[in-house]
Amino acid sequence: MAEKTILIKYHSDEIEKLDYIGGKSDWIDLRAAEEVEMKKGELRYISLGISVRLPEGYEMIIAPRSSTYKNFGILQPNSPAVVDESYSSDEDIIRYPALAMRDTVIHVNDRICQFRILEHQPRITFTEVESLGGEARGGFGSTGRQ
Which of 19, 20, 61, 83 is the most exposed place for a label (fewest CB within 10 A)? Predict the structure, then answer.
C-alpha cells in the first residue's frame, strides 16, 4: 500500500507527536490537549490540539480507544466521527465530543481516542429489485453469543 502524507499543525507543545504504537495497530492514538474536569451528564468538546490536511479523496475516522470508557467514564456520542478533507484550515482544530457517564478528570496527554484514514467510498448506484434472492439469517443479533 502506498504511503500517504498528512500535513499536521500542532496547537500544543505539551502533547506527544502523532505516531504508530510499536507495531500493535494501524490506528493512531489522539491525546487530550487540555485539562478537563467533567461532571456526570456533561458534554464537552475536548481539544486534541491538532489541525490536519488530509490527502484528497481521504477521510479521518475517529473512535474511542477500547480503554476510554474504563479509564475516563466518557462516551463519544457521535461515534465514530468522520473528518473529511475539507476540514483543513489552521482554525479547524480537531476536538473529541465526550459525554461523561461519571465525574471524571482528563489530563493533558491522556490518550482518549484513535483514528485512521480511509479512502472515500466509491460512487455507487442503487438498483431497486423485487427480491434480493439471499437466504434469511434470522434477523439482528441472530448469530448467537459464542
Answer: 19
Catalytic residue selected from 13, 26, 29, 84: 84
Q: Domain-by-domain residue ranges, the chain?
A: 25-119
In the chain, the amino acid numbered 138 is G
- Known catalytic membership, residue 84: yes
What's the pTM value of the predicted model, to 2 decimals?
Answer: 0.85
Classify 141 as helix, strand or coil. Answer: coil
Contact 62, 115 (CB under 8 A): yes
**Rounded to whole angstroms, what are the CA distances from 106 to 28, 79, 109, 113, 126?**
19, 19, 9, 12, 45
Instruction: Name the H helices within the chain.
Output: 68-72
pLDDT tens for the chain, 146 residues: list them: 678 899 999 999 999 999 887 767 889 999 999 999 999 999 999 999 999 999 999 999 999 999 999 999 999 999 899 999 999 999 999 999 999 999 999 999 999 999 999 999 999 999 999 999 988 877 766 666 66
Place of cell 479523496: 57
